[in-house]
Amino acid sequence: HSLIFLRVSSTKAEHPVEVAAALAPTVLLYIEGGFRVLEKLGGRVPDDHRYAAWLRLYTDPSWLEYCNEFLARLQRLASEASDSQRDSARQLFLQCVEHEVDFWQQAVDRPRQPVKS
After folding, report:
1. How far apart are CA 38 and CA 102, in angstroms?
2. What is this structure's pTM?
3. DSSP label at 112?
4. In this structure, how many other beta carbons lie within 10 angstroms of the beta carbon of residue 72?
5. What is the distance between the alpha carbons of residues 2 and 4, in angstroms, rounded to a whole number?
6. For a FRET experiment, which of 2, 24, 84, 94 has its CA 20 to 30 Å from that of 116?
């Protein structure tokens, strides 16, 4: 449901900073999550790890570079936006964080199901 929220929010946005702010939680949380898991794995992703492709994507140096560029753009857009647009962007950011937390919380709350091959 976070994608639906993002789609609806972006169509109502008055300034690009609002769209960027709504995207920011995914950009930031995935890189944070990837590096936390990588650290727990001792800095190396085993080839047979269930989420090896995901972990490699979100811990790749080019993804980190993209994230830094994204944040720089977000800062530039925020500096060009009005106070009300920045307030709207802040609210969208917080709402999208809540959606991301809800998404990941599902994995904790749901009973484990065996993976079918």
Report:
1. 22
2. 0.75
3. P
4. 10
5. 5
6. 2
